Amino acid sequence: MGPAAQATDELIRRAWSALGGEPELLGLVEVTGDARGLLPSLLPALPAMVAAAAASTLAASVLDATRRTARPGPVLLDVEHVALAARSERHVRGAGAPTADLFTPLSRFWRTADGWLRLHANYTWHRDRALAVLGCDGRIEAMEEAISGWRAEELEDALAAAGAVGYAVRSPRQWRDHPQGRALAASPLVHSAAGQESGRSFPDGAGATGVRVLDLTRVIAGPVATRTLAAWGAEVLRLDSPHLPEIPAQALDMLSGKRSATLDFSSPDGRTRLEELLAEADVLVQGYRPGALARHGLAPDALAERHPHLSVVTLSAWERPDRGRHGAVSIR
Fold it and tell me: What is the tens place of the pLDDT at every residue in 215-236?
C-alpha cells in the first residue's frame, strides 16, 4: 500500500470514528482507481475528500440497512469519481451550455506589504465591502496598489470587521502556531449532543427516503452535504434570503435533487412560515457563520426548545477564538 492509500485509509478511519461508527464496518469500504495526477496539492486534499465520501456513504448504507432490517451493504468508491465530483462546478451544464466561472477576477491571491492575502469576492456584497475597506474601485491595478499598502493580518482583521472575506496566507507552521490553528487542532471533528426527545420514527423504506431536510447553507460544504442527503432520497428544501441571491452557476451545481425557495426571516410573515417549515422538518442543516442565524431564533438551543423533534446540524469552518467570522483559510 502506497503513502497516498495509507493516508486515505487513516482519514477514512478517523472520519468514521468521529461519526461514532462501528469500527468493524470499515471492512465494507473498498477504494479503487488511480489517484496519480488528480487534484495535486501540498495537503492531502483528495484523500480527505475520499474519506468524507466513504464515511458518508457507509453511514447511508447503515441507515438503509436499519430501515430494511438488513445487513449494511458494501461501499465502493472510485477516487477518479471523487476527484470529478470535487470539481463538479466545472462540468455542470445548463441547457447544454457550460456555466460561467464562479470565481470573479477579484477572488484571487494578492500581494501585501509583508506577504499574501486570499480575497473572496464572488458574492457582490462581499466584493462591495472589500472595496469599501480598500477605498478603491474594482480595477486590478487599483486593487494591487491598495492591498500592497496593507500588512496581511491587519487587512484580514479589517475585512472581517466590515463583513468581507479575506485571509492572510500562512505557512503550515504559522497556522499551527496561530490561536485559531491551535483551537481547531484541539477540537474534535464532530461535536454531538443528544436532545431531550427523540425524532420522528419512519416507516420501512430505503436510504433517507421520507426524511425532510431544511437547508440553510451556502457556498460548498453545506450545499454538498444537503445535496448528498438528497442523493440518498431525502426531501431537501433550500432557503435563501431574497436580498442575498445565489450565484446562478453555483445554484445550478448545488441545487441538484433539491427544491429551493426564498424567505425573508426578518418579516413577520417570513418568521411565521419559517416556524411552520421547522415544525414539518426532520433535519435542519445550517452553514452560515457562527451566530449569524441566532437573531432569527435559529441557535441550536433555541431550536431544541421550540422544536425538540428536530435534528440540528451546524457546519462551521471556524471555532473559537474567531467565532463570528466567515469560514475560510489559505495555507501555502
Answer: 999 888 889 999 999 999 999 9
Rounded to 5°, angle at Cα 83 from 331 and 236? 95
pLDDT at 327: 56
Any domain includes 12: yes
Say how many C-beta atoms besides its own lie within 10 A of residue 186's C-beta: 8
The pTM is what? Answer: 0.85
**SS3 track for 285-300:** EECCCCCCCHHHCCCH
Q: Are 30 and 77 in contact (CB under 8 A)?
A: yes
Same-domain pairing of 81 and 41: yes
Widest Cα–Cα separation across the chain: 64
Residues 47-76: pLDDT tens digits?
999 999 999 999 999 999 999 888 999 999
Residues 121 and 148 placed together within one structural domain of the fold: yes
∠ CA(196), CA(68), CA(283), 5° rounding?
Answer: 35
Same domain, 70 and 123: no
Number of domains forming the structure of the chain:
3
In a domain, residue 97? The reply is: no
Domain extent, residue 9, equals 3-86
Nearest to 236 by CA among 192, 194, 282: 282
Q: Are 297 and 326 in the same domain?
A: no
Lowest mean pLDDT among 81-95, 140-154, 250-264, 312-326: 312-326
What are the grid coordinates assigned to 134, written together?
Answer: 480598500
Q: Grid coordinates standing for 114?
A: 509583508
Of 294, 299, 291, 301, residue with least CA distance to 323: 291
Look over the chain and give the mean of its residue pLDDT values, rounded to a whole number.
87
